[in-house]
Design brief:
Length: 287
């Protein structure tokens, strides 16, 4: 006689076989024994089949439901994947987020397939060569890239992968989001600002010469507010330590910024306007 435990074990191990083969194995597991009367054997087999029928039916229903469930899950996953891919493709290829104002030397847009487009689309990166620089408009702000710089343009942030960028938000329209910059050392953002960020191998340097900038690295966050005639510079090391010191608002860290200026348009402008522009470009105080 086969115990209930043996029946369950055999039923579980035979999921890939036919029910008939399962029946034959169950009758054969006891090994060689005296052959009973054929009529008794037939009645015993019919009784066993009758007792096992509900179990077989439950297994069949379970397999059917599981198959339908898996198929539905695969269809849903494929469908969601298709929608996500379509959305990503649409976002990456159809939505411009920045535009070139000026570029000098080798400058390349990577991640897209457009030829000589003045627009930069979401998810694309702008890479400057060893002698290349670029000036762009991003959410109404003036964004400039120094030589040997790579920046990815996302909808709500700039990702600085190497080199240096400068941001001037003076001409930003009301309602435009602030410019947030992300680096491997941390992130930074602003409040009405001229700021700069330079990413070296083991150091992130952030400078502000107008307004306020916050620097966040790990669990630490520091804010810097520029003062008249004085800028502030934060240095972030790979361990997230932030050191801040005062610095000049011109030259040094800022020396390359005027080299990629979009220039001054003199039509209808006064001398005072030109002097204001000059001071803003170089970080001078005009008196």
């Amino acid at each position: 006689m086969v115990s209930p435990t043996e029946r369950d074990s055999q039923a579980d191990s035979g999921d890939t076989d036919s029910d008939e083969a399962l029946m034959q194995r169950l009758f054969a597991i006891g090994g060689a024994r005296q052959t009973p009367d054929q009529g008794a054997l037939r009645r015993a087999e019919e009784a066993f089949r009758s007792a096992l029928a509900p179990v077989v039916q439950r297994r069949k229903r379970k397999r059917t439901v599981m198959t339908i469930s898996i198929a539905a899950s695969l269809v849903a996953a494929v469908g969601l994947g298709f929608v996500y891919t379509q959305q990503q493709s649409s976002v990456a290829t159809d939505v411009p987020v920045a535009s070139f104002v000026r570029s000098d030397g080798p400058v390349e847009v990577i991640g897209g397939n457009r030829v000589k487009s003045k627009a930069v689309y979401i998810g694309e990166s702008v890479m400057t060569g060893d002698s290349g620089r670029a000036s762009l408009r991003y959410h109404g702000s003036d964004v400039r890239l120094d030589v040997a710089t790579t920046v990815r343009f996302d909808p709500a942030r700039l990702v600085l992968e190497r080199g240096a960028l400068y941001v001037d938000t003076d001409a930003r329209e009301p309602g435009e989001p602030p410019v947030v910059v992300e680096t491997r050392f941390g992130m930074l953002g602003h409040t009405g600002t001229q700021f700069i960020a330079r990413l070296d191998t083991n150091l992130l340097t952030v400078g502000v010469r107008e307004g306020t900038v916050f620097v966040k690295s790990g669990s630490g966050r520091r804010e810097m507010t520029a003062q008249p005639h004085e800028a502030y510079v934060a240095q972030v090391d790979p361990f997230g330590e932030i050191q801040i010191h005062a610095a000049a608002p011109f030259g040094g860290l800022w020396a390359w910024v005027p080299e990629t200026s979009p220039g001054f348009t003199s039509d209808g402008k006064s001398v005072d306007s030109y002097l204001d522009w000059l001071g803003r470009e170089y970080g001078y105080s005009i008196e």
